[in-house]
Amino acid sequence: MAKGLWSLSWPILVSTVLYFSLTITDTLFLSRESDGAAAAVGALMPMLTLAAAVFSALGQAGCAVAGQQLGARWDARVPGTYGAMLWVNGAFGAALSLAALVLHRQMPRWLGLSGTELDHADAYLTWVGGTLFIAGALFTLTNIANSRGQTQWVLAQALLTNVLNVGLNALFLWGPWGSLGVTGVAWATVLARIGGVVLLVVAVERMQLRIELLPSLAKLRSAAGPILRIGLPSALEPLAFEGSRIVLMMFIISMGPVALAARVYTYNLTVISVIWSIALAVGTQILLAHRIGEGRLVEAHRQLYRSLALAVAGSTALVVVLNVFRVPLVTMLTRDVEVLELTQPLFQLAVLLEVGRSVNVVAGSALRSSGDARFTGFVGAALMWGLAIPLSYWLGVSRGMGVVGVWLAMAIDECVRGAVNLVRWQSGAWKTRTVVARTA
Questions:
Q1: pLDDT digit string (tens) for 154-175?
Q2: Which domain does 108 fall in, by range?
């Protein structure tokens, strides 16, 4: 692969910004309706991101497997891997969509929402949750393009999706028929994602990629095996993370509407620093998968540390800038003085939070690219449920620190997991976990 880290990562950075901005756009449009509508939809994000975490983990696992196969010049196996990616994520997407359709009223209640906030969440979850299989297809096609280093198509898809989302949001909220409220915002998101899938299908055809869509059962099981071996343990960590966020959101909802609104607005504004790390992690994963497949392990090791330095420096700089402009940014979303004041300590703690997250996501992604996904999955899940949740309850509820205590506990958790993943990489255990090593 001739491309370097930055040429791979910058389209991923922009496309990831644009993917997350779907939610931010929805929140921004809904904040014009009411803080309650924006907060209710924001409270659902851990549940919806839980599904995205599964799709992303399985898609990136397929990307890592295909990358190692391409690096080892096992080109004949790649179409089967691409087909297995679509089948695996398709099955998970169908199951999650069905669950959302059946439980669209109960899920918001589990979070503690009631009254008009429950109605808002119900309307949004029915449409966006009930069509999660579309998001699954979007993640799969994105990772197929990423595995070939064709990240410009991912960028084009993200641009189209966001243009559609903004335009449709404006139409459904301010159109000639009047506001369609939360339902209209949900329709905009679903239709925008459909547009993104159509563009990526065209991209796959333009790249002339062969995908084995109807393999025999034996071939499908053989191709899906390496994906699931990396993807399921990889999914365990984000699943545990999003599951823990649901519990933390329940803590925050119990602290009142001001705490909930402050958390939602702070996360939506600081997510740019999260995206910086994610983009570099994905770019690093693509590079490392190819280099590991080629047997260039020393170069892979050096690349990780170059990526870490860039991720930490960029995330820190972004959060510092966000702290400087916190007041004008938050007042774009709300005029509530209590909410504005509560965001100050959350923005300040975000500096520590994002430094730890940068190390965690880049080092964890590197381990997954090598096939050492079981370690990151099980250790990450154990720390989130054994450290983050108890510490959040102790600081936020028992000690009375509220949402600030929860935010501090999250920062400590990210720093600890980042350190553990980095020590694991440094140990070199990942060198025996690669797909190529297992198959040789």
A1: 778 888 988 898 899 889 888 7
A2: 5-439
